[in-house]
Amino acid sequence: MAYAVWDSVWSHWRQQEDGWAMQLLAVTCLSLAAKMEETLVPSLLDLQIESTRYIFEPRTILRMELLVLTALNWRLRSVTPFTFIDFFACKVDPRGRHMRYLIARATQIILAAIHDIEFLDHCPSSMAAAAVLCAAGETPSLTLLNPRLAVNWCIGLAEEGVSSCYQLMQQLVGGKRAKTTAAAAVNLCSDEVLSCDSSSCTTPPPPKRRKRSPPPVIT
């Protein structure tokens, strides 16, 4: 966040070389992050370390916050598919019996999908809905869900977008399962070959010694 804002505010302090501008920017970003994430926000003086070279007044930090917010167009939170997972999982399982599994499995599917360029055409809400549908399809009691029902979960969801993303995720999950099964088969075959080789390479038992016949008795 500091690097994104620095280019827009550096022109105001281009003549400064003592480093106070960067320190002020760091304290300001920390203050904004605390206001976004914490329920009990510490004071602006508590966010600063006493041993630092500069200690800024609260009004100075507040003015810097307005500058940072203006540079970011007041967009402090990026919307991702993970923003919708908990809400959609609750829609699928209102009683919460499979809530943990749905959230965990949908998270795994999304993390695997973000590496595929084909998912860039889909909005975060459609990806979250499709991932929850895929996770629900792996649960026996929740297999009757389809993209048409998912449209009613949230305003802005389109059946075409959810269905297209859902099909891509099914292919992704199916491909990973096939690769896992093939890898397991290869490992099993290699283990069998190694066991056969090890059994064939064992040293043979020593040959049995022939009993010597007793010498003839001379009468």
From TrEMBL:
InterPro entries: Cyclin (IPR039361), Cyclin-like_sf (IPR036915), Cyclin_C-dom (IPR004367), Cyclin_N (IPR006671). One of its GO terms (biological process) is cell division. The keyword Cell division applies. Signal peptide: none annotated. Pfam families: Cyclin_C, Cyclin_N. The keyword Cell division applies. Residues 198-219 are annotated as: Disordered. Keywords: Cell cycle, Cell division, Cyclin. Residues 79-204 form the Cyclin C-terminal domain. This is Cyclin C-terminal domain-containing protein. It comes from Aegilops tauschii subsp. strangulata (Goatgrass). The lineage of its organism: Eukaryota, Viridiplantae, Streptophyta, Embryophyta, Tracheophyta.
